Amino acid sequence: MSAVFSFLFGLLFLAVILGIAVTVSRGRRDQWQALAAQRGLQWAPGRTLAPGTLTGSIHEIPVRATTVRRGNGKSSTTWTVVHAQAGQALPVGLRVSHEGLGASVMKLFGAQDIQLGDKGMDGELRIQGQDEPAIRALLTRPELRAPLRALARYPARSRIEDDQVVLERIGTDSAELAKLLDAAAALARGLAEASRRPWQELAERHGLELKRSGSIVVLGGTVAGMRVELRTALRDGHPFSRIIVHLSAGLPPGLAAQVAPRDARGEGLQLGDPVLDGVIQVTCPDPEAARALLRDEHQGIDLHGDLLAVIHGHPGSVLTDRSLTLVADTASPVAVDAALTDALTLTRSLGRLLRGSGGQATAASASPSLNEPAAVHRTPPQPVRS
Fold first, then answer.
1. For residue 249, what is the DSSP state?
2. In this structure, are 298 and 252 located in the same domain?
3. Which residue in 239, 299, 264 sits closest to 92, CA to CA?
């Protein structure tokens, strides 16, 4: 009889516990539904006893909130996890997480940790990604310092990954959920604006129009009478930028200048500059016209230096009689700005030479009365690729 009583008492106890759990879960679910209605989000039911899932947008930032259970048995814990999408492509492979003991140990074995030069952030956050210049240019913007350091105050699984902000907290309290939603959306919005702003500044600095930003950045316009197109892919496996400056008529027809292949060094037209002739291959149906244009005796114009900065500094770039195409393995606004400056400096030098020779390439020197080009920052030459 006592065994039966104990069994029935156990069943009753389990029923009471289950009833309390169901009541609490229904309360949480109702709170999540109320929060969804208050914030203009959509609520969807979740698994048994879970409060469900919230989706929608906060200040035009897509967000999603759900729960996960971690651990086993009595040690299992329910976590609230919020995702917010920046909506603006961030540097390829970007990941910002906590600088914990595990990360410190991994660094001893060569794991990546990009340093920003800020002791506070470098000590609290571990930063990874493929395009380090682009990552530094983004994360060192002053408006992001406080939001990024705030990330370190959330549990260790909280992070930035690609274009997603992920914040977590133990429990399912709706008041804490509201705080997580606001914090994640604010950080994602800050990242999006900080990612977009350098491109807008670049466009304004060069008199171009920012036509598109996101997974692909596109700028275009006219500079000094030349049509300029700039396209940067931020998520094409590897960062890549292409700048095209369309030239007006006047260069020798059929002219082409590019990095000389390793097995063809010294071939093509010789311009009388051992450095230039060793790394750049020039071809043209009219060799004398090409030599007259590209020789290094034009007063006030460092044409060979300009050619080296573009053709040798950015292997894969090509100058023809119709256009200059510069390619660079970067999506950093700072590096792209420097590359664009190099391209415009070269095309302006060519334009000055053509104006000085009456619009066509001849052996005459450029007129010394022409205005000197503005001082520019030039990208250091990169190693020549195989």
1. B
2. yes
3. 239
pLDDT tens-digit series, residues 153-187: 898 899 999 889 999 999 989 999 999 999 999 99
Does the structure show a pLDDT above 60 at 24? Answer: no
Which residue in the block uniquely carries the two structure tokens 């510069």? Answer: 326
20, part of any domain: no
Q: What is the pTM of this model?
A: 0.72
For tokens 């171009």, name the residue. 208
Q: Does residue 370 belong to any structural domain of this protein? A: no
Q: Residue 373 falls within a domain, yes or no? A: no
The span from the CA of 63 to the CA of 261, in Å, is 50
DSSP states of 26-49: HHHHHHHHHHHHHHT-EEE--STT
Q: What is the token pair recorded at 239? A: 């960062």
Which of helix, strand or coil describes residue 72? coil
Relative to beta strand 77-85, strand 95-98 is unpaired
Does 39 fall in a domain?
A: yes
Q: How far apart are CA 215 and CA 85, in angstroms?
A: 13
- 266 and 321 in a single domain? The answer is yes
Q: Structural domain tally of the chain?
A: 2
Q: Which pLDDT belongs to residue 132?
A: 86
CA geometry: angle 16, 17, 20, nearest 5 deg:
85
132 and 83 share a domain? yes
Distance CA 107, CA 111 (A): 4
Are 222 and 329 members of one domain? Answer: yes
Cα–Cα distance measured from residue 116 to residue 144, given in angstroms and rounded to the nearest whole number:
12
Residue 66 is part of which domain span? 32-200
- Cα torsion 335, 337, 339, 341: sign: negative
